[in-house]
Amino acid sequence: MYVIDTNAIIYAIKQKISLEKFLFEEIVVPSSVVEELEKLSINDKNAKIALRLIQKYKVIETSEKGDEGVIDVALRNNGKVITNDADLIKRLKLLGISAVSVSLGMVRS
C-alpha cells in the first residue's frame, strides 16, 4: 500500500504522470491530504484536479494534520509513502517507513 502526500499528487498532475503506471499496489489518501487539497483548491487549479483524481483512491481517516496524517496512516497500515518533501522523507527514514518520490516522469525509490 502506498500513502500519497499532497505535493506528490500535485506534482504528478503538473507533470502528467500516471502513478498507476509505476505503482502496482493500492494507493490510499489520508484525510489530512484531502483537507490540504480542499484548502489549496481555492486558488490552485492543480489542487482542484487532484481532488477529482483522488476520488478513485481509498481515503483513510486520520485525526492528525499535514505530514503527521501521512505518517499516521503509513504507520497504522504498514504503508510506503509517496512524497517529494525532502524533510518528510528524512523523518520517514528515521521511523523505518519506505518512501518514494515522483520526478522526471516516473516514481523513484
Brief synopsis:
The chain is α/β, with parallel strands linked by helices and 109 residues long.
Task: Sum up the structure in keywords.
109 residues, alpha/beta, Rossmann fold, six-stranded mixed beta sheet, 19% strand
Structural summary, described in words:
The protein has 109 residues and is α/β, with parallel strands linked by helices. The protein has a single domain, classed as Rossmann fold (3-Layer(aba) Sandwich), CATH 3.40.50. The chain contains six helices and six strands, in the order βααβααβαβαββ. A six-stranded mixed sheet has the order 3-2-1-4-5-6. Helix 1 (6-14) packs across helix 4 (45-53), helix 3 packs antiparallel against helix 4 (45-53) and helix 3 runs antiparallel to helix 5 (66-77). The longest helix is centred in the middle third of the chain and has 12 residues, at 66-77. The chain is globular and about 35 Å long.
CATH superfamily: 5'-nuclease
Question: Which class in CATH terms?
Answer: Alpha Beta
Quickly give the CATH architecture. Answer: 3-Layer(aba) Sandwich
Provide the CATH topology: Rossmann fold
Shape: globular
Number of β-strand runs: 6
H/E order of the elements? Answer: EHHEHHEHEHEE
Q: Please outline the major beta sheet.
A: 6 strands, mixed
List the strand order in the largest sheet: 3-2-1-4-5-6
Helix content: 40-55%
Total number of domains? 1
Instruction: Report the span from N to C terminus.
Output: 14 Å
How many alpha or pi helices?
Answer: 6
Low-pLDDT runs of 5+ residues are none
- Summed over residues and divided by their number, the pLDDT gives a mean of 91
Strand coverage percent: 15-25%
Backbone CA Rg: 13 Å
Structural category is alpha/beta
